[in-house]
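User: Please fill in residues for this 154-position structure.
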């Protein structure tokens, strides 16, 4: 079932003219560094935000390690990097450093200007203000859960 969902998601991504990615680096309960890669796009059925991959980092959490993992995941699904029009990240130096950060490395690989944002949770909070009430309740719950996780040490 999960492979079928992934296949449908990748087929949708191949049809879109542009997409946005959101990347967040964190550690799991075993202290293994990993990157969450979300894609946002408009499909024939409407706007979607999907988890494209939960990518373990093999070496360190440097910008180039994160960039290599993300690029490998996107290319594995045969999605052209040129479709990316914006990137959302957290504010870590490994993500935002001007020369060696993930965003800088990805910008070098993409042949056009891209928009960059940081702190995914703030974007989600802003989106809540414009969504219908049913979706707002879900988004508010998600924001509370994320803030609770962030506030507590694993």
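Assistant: Residues filled in for all 154 positions:
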């Amino acid at each position: 079932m999960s492979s079928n969902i992934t296949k449908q998601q990748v087929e949708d991504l191949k049809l879109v003219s542009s997409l946005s990615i959101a990347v967040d680096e964190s550690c799991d309960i075993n202290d293994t560094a990993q990157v969450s890669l979300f894609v946002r796009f408009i499909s024939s059925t409407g706007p979607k935000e999907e988890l494209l991959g939960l990518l373990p980092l093999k070496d360190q959490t440097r910008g180039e390690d994160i960039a290599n993992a993300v690029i490998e995941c996107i290319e594995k699904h045969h999605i052209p990097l040129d479709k990316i029009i914006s990137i959302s990240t957290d504010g870590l130096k490994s993500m935002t450093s001007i020369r060696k950060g993930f965003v800088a490395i990805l910008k070098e690989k993409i042949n056009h200007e891209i928009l960059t944002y940081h702190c995914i949770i703030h974007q989600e909070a802003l989106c809540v203000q414009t969504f219908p009430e049913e979706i707002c309740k879900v988004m508010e719950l998600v924001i509370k859960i994320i803030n609770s996780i962030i506030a507590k040490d694993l």
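For context: The chain has two domains: 2-118, 120-154.
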